[in-house]
Every structure is written in structure tokens, then in C-alpha cells.
Amino acid sequence: MSESRDVHEIADKPYNLLQEQLSKAKEEIKLKDEEVGKLSKVRDQVGLELQDLTASLFEEAHRMVREANERRVSVEKQLKEALSKIDVLDAEITALKRLVLASAPDVPKSESLPILSIRTSGITSFLRGHKRSGSHTGAIEKRRDVSPPPDPSDNATLNNFIETDPLLYEEFSKWVQNPVLESGGSDFLLRIHREDIIPCLTYRNIEMAKAVQKSVEENSLMMEVVVGNESQECECALTMICQSCTYRMKLGESCCWHYISKLARDRIAAVCDFFTYVRYVHLGLVKQDEMTMFLEILKLRKQMCLAKLGVLIKNDNSSAHLS
Questions:
Q1: Which CA distances in Å does 205 have to 210, 251, 270?
Q2: How far is CA 243 from the centre of its chain?
Q3: Which of 132, 129, 116 is nearest to 84 (CA)?
Q4: What's the CA gap between 129 and 150, in Å, rounded?
Q5: pLDDT of residue 271
Q6: Residue 106 in contact with residue 208, Cβ under 8 Å?
């Protein structure tokens, strides 16, 4: 019996050894499976992070490209406005030199200033501070082409040349002693606002007409020619009539452009010409005598009247003899 038991025990030893090895193998496999699971989670997490990083990099790249394009457009726009401002200031300086030259008594009448070269940018603007229409230089030239008034020192010749309304001249004479720019500050400007400026800037679009008048008085109106394919048949923002709108304007600090017809533009430009001359008088840049300045005011008032009636919309030559 003891021998058979020993034989049985001897036979069981390899079996038990195999069982132990099997158990150890199962434990190792279990540990390996847990490690593989952890590594799989790490791999999935890294994959998600890599995907998010890739998406964020693409988004950042698109944002940088978009910002670069926006900056490029902004710089091009600023360059275009700067060139336009230089053109307008060149024209402003030329017109101002001609005005000062014409008012200087010691300069021969035959002497003239060379016209400055102006780049053709297709844009005319009313710019803050010194904003003038591109038509200003032409308007000054046309006014200079008209026969000059007689020598103001020769009262007899002057009286034969023109008979002025004594009330209008009295109001102007009082204003020129203290040339304020506010319309309520003098009977002279109040009359011109009532009789010329308000009628000239009266349009079907009442609210925008008021905004235009305010912007012109504050010298914050921008107006430019619509070039190329931008010119279109549309409803004029002021007259509210569908017609060819070859100009557009921007009021004050507003970033919105409004398309307007040439008739609307000419009326605004005529009022701006008046305000520019009045500002020159206010700044002391006009050295003419009172009668000569008064006659210039009358010409500018006549220009507003003609623009209001639409006389200036056909061509410049048709109205030259009227001014």
C-alpha cells in the first residue's frame, strides 16, 4: 500500500508542477492584458489629443491667413485713401494759392501759378479738416475765367458795374467783422441757410438730407466717384429715384457708403464750395476787400441756386457762361 501511494505521489508531482506553471502563465497573461488595455487607452488619448491639436493648428492657420488678408485689404484701403487725400490736398493748395494770389494787390494780374500735377485715382473726397470736392479746382478756374470785377477802389466804376442789395451787404459787412461759422451767429449766414443751403440740400429722403447738411457743416462728409463696374443703376439714397448713381458718399464716422446721383452730388458740392470759402474768410486766409468777398459770396450763392435747379448736371461747359 505504501508503495502504491508513493508511486501515486510521484505521478502527481509533474501534474502539480504543470498546474502551478499554468496558474503563473494565466496571471502573466492577465497582467499583460491589463497592460495592453492601459496602453490602448493611452494610445486612444494620444490619438484624440493629436486630432484636437491638428484641428487647432488648421484653425489657427486659417485665422492667421484671414487676418493677413484683412490687414492687406485694410492697408490697400488706407493707401488708396492716403493717395486720394494727397490729391485733394494738392488741389486744395493750388486753389488756395490762386485765391491768395488773386487777392494780393502787389502781384501783377498776368502772373499765375503752375497747376500742380494730380494723380488720377478716380476718387474725389471731402476729407476731414480740409475735405474738398475734386470739382473745386475746376470751379475756381471757371470763376477766374469770368471777367474780373472792377477795381473796388474805383467806386464810380463799381456802382456802374453792379447794384447790390444794401440789406444783404449790410448783413455781410457785420459778419465779416467777426466771421463766425455758426448759422445762428449772424443774420448773414442765417439768411443764406434759409434761402440757399436748406433748399439746395432738400431731398425726398428727409432724414438723410438732414444728416448730409449736418455733415457738410461739420466738414466730415466724404464723397467719391464710383469707378469701373461699381457704377450702377440703383435708387439714389437722397432723391430715392432709380437712376445712374456714379457717386457715393459717407457721412461723418459712419462706415456705410450711400450711392447718389450726379444731381445730388453737384448740389452737395456747391454747398461745400460755399462753406470752404466761408472757412477761408474765418481763418483769415482771404485778403480781399469787403466788396470783392461779397461778390464772391454772390457767385457761390448763384452756384448753389443753379445746382439746385439741375443746371450743372449735363456738362461743365453748359453752365460756364452762367457762372
A1: 9, 15, 19
A2: 23
A3: 132
A4: 34
A5: 92
A6: no
Q: Locate cell 449736418: which residue?
A: 214
Q: Is 276 exposed, middle or buried (0-12, 13-18, 19+ CB in 10 A)?
A: buried
Bridge partners, residue 223, by sequence: 249
Question: In the structure grid, which three cell numbers stand for residue 75, read together?
Answer: 492697408
Q: What is the mean pLDDT of residues 136-160?
A: 45
* Three-state secondary structure call for residue 221: strand
On whether the CB atoms of residues 118 and 154 are closer than 8 A, the answer is no
What one-character DSSP code corresponds to residue 268?
Answer: H
Element (H, E) at 169: helix 166-177
Cα–Cα distance measured from residue 153 to residue 291, given in angstroms and rounded to the nearest whole number? 10
As a three-state string, the secondary structure of 11-62 is HHHHHHHHHHHHHHHHHHHHHHHHHHHHHHHHHHHHHHHHHHHHHHHHHHHH
Give residue for cell 445712374: 244
What span, in angstroms and rounded, lies between the C-alpha atoms of 288 and 116? 24
| Pairwise pLDDT comparison (185 vs 57), residue with the higher score | 57
Geometric angle at alpha carbon 80, from 74 and 85, rounded to 5°: 120
Q: What is the DSSP letter of 253?
A: T
Separation between Cα atoms, residue 18 and residue 31, nearest integer Å:
20
Statement: residue 130 has pLDDT above 60: no
Reduced to 3 states, what is the DSSP secondary structure of residue 132? Answer: strand
Of residues 22 and 131, which shows the higher confidence score?
22
Q: Rounded distance, CA 292 to CA 295, Å? A: 5
Phi, psi (rounded to 5 degrees) for 167: -65, -45
Residue 140 confidence class, pLDDT cut points 50, 70, 90: very low
Cα separation, 222 vs 264, in Å, equals 14
